[in-house]
Amino acid sequence: MRFDVITLFPELFAPFLVQGVTRRAFESGQVDVQFWPLRDYAEGNYRRVDDRPFGGGPGMVMLAEPLERALAAVQAARGAPAPLIHFSPTGRRIDQALLREMATGPGAVLLCGRYEGIDQRFLDRHVDQELSLGDFVLSGGELPALALLDGIARLQEGVLSDARSHQQDSFEEGLLDCPHYSRPELLDSAEGPLPVPPVLLSGHHADIARWRRERSLELTARRRPELIAAARAAGRLSKADERFLAQLPPLDPTSI
Questions:
Q1: 150: burial class by Cβ within 10 Å (0-12, 13-18, 19+)?
Q2: Is 116 a known active-site residue?
Q3: Non-local CB neighbours of 206 within 8 Å, separated by 6+ positions
Q4: For the chain, what is the radius of gyration of the CA atoms?
Q5: Half-sphere exposure for 250 (CA within 13 Å, toward CB)
Q6: Is 100 annotated in the active site?
Q7: pTM
Q8: Catalytic-labelled residue, pool 116, 130, 172, 218
Q9: Catalytic site residue 89?
Q10: Catalytic residue among 4, 50, 114, 154, which?
Q11: b/e string for 216-226 if b means 16 or more Cβ within 10 A?
């Protein structure tokens, strides 16, 4: 798949593409990322890409014309249509379901806005989908674009050392992930030795699987109860799950 990124700051992406486990997806070309520096498509001595907003007000607005030229160059290079994604607080929240869907697709053109915003005429003409990291404001679309690329890259075959890793991630079954432990079996602390839960040392795979499932259910019920409701509505909870949830003490709102 291929992602074309229209951005004022392509250098923000460079370390990300060569570090960590997800670099395998980028180095192998499984996820091909091409950058289109917006100032390359601006005109005049100053390569201006923004101007003051009509009607007054704070901030600057990204100009439509450089964006039109950049997008035309992207479309010519790709040779085939691709959706244009704009990162905005008004967009759909990025979640694991979206990442799974996009991880098997052809890619997209990622538009990373800056300043006060982008000329709405460009957005109205070209944007196919708006995505958001959450209900907060960032300085630009580069961080959401990086998050999207990371989430998609790690779902590609062969990227993670163990193919089962992402299957156990939070949200893969609509629930939060369970806690994890490693060596030493007893961790020294000021309060005394902290042990690993004994079931994880038992070697009984069925017991371990059930313990992990129950911890996942408990954590989700306490931290994100709406996910339990959604999993129930989708038929993802077994009778054993429901019995376990029923015996949990009532949720204390102050603990969330």
A1: middle
A2: yes
A3: none
A4: 23
A5: 3
A6: no
A7: 0.83
A8: 116
A9: yes
A10: 154
A11: bbbbbbbebee
